[in-house]
Amino acid sequence: VEVKWSMSNAYKWEDAGEDGVTIRIPFAGASLTGRDVSVEIKAKSIKAGLKGQPPVVQGTLYDRVSVADSVWQLERKESCIVINLEKEMPKPWPMVVAAPDAQGAMDPQSRYLLGVINEGGLFLESNPGMGAGGGFPEGL
User: Under a CB-based contact definition with an 8 Å cutoff, are residues 43 and 65 in contact?
Assistant: First the structure.
């Protein structure tokens, strides 16, 4: 099966909060069946695309998923492969795949995002009065 991927967005993903993460891989110009698709979901990694072609999504996941509760399906009306990953820990994901560069380090944008998240977490731990609602610590 010859498929041309929508390269403007190789894939889209959304964090569904505590429930999990949804990945949508669009395809164009072909009528696919499950036999044309290759999806491997492991606790800490994913590899998805069409058989015989380079994967569209591949790498180490941001956090662990429940393999038994994660599923994929073809959405013919939307012309895409939909992968639902069930998180083991109900926390926000800033990214789906942490893609290392050739030296094995994270790309600059991913490194920045993780730094912001980590700094925010450390700040909130050391300043418990500064919750999600903003505001000032008690007593000020």
Answer: yes
List strand residue ranges (DSSP E) for the chain, in order.
Answer: 12-15, 20-26, 37-41, 45-50, 57-61, 65-75, 80-87, 97-98
pLDDT for 24-45, tens place per residue?
Answer: 898 876 678 889 899 999 999 9
Segments making up each domain of the chain, as ranges = 12-99
pTM of the model: 0.66
pLDDT tens digits, 8-25? 458 888 888 888 999 989
What is the spatial distance between Cα 59 and Cα 55, in angstroms, rounded to a whole number?
A: 10
Which tokens is 103 given?
């030296």
Residue 49: Cβ-neighbour burial (10 angstroms; 0-12, 13-18, 19+): buried
Q: Among 118, 115, 140, which Cα is nearest to 129's? A: 140
Class of domain 12-99: mainly beta
Cα separation of 105 and 99, whole Å?
8
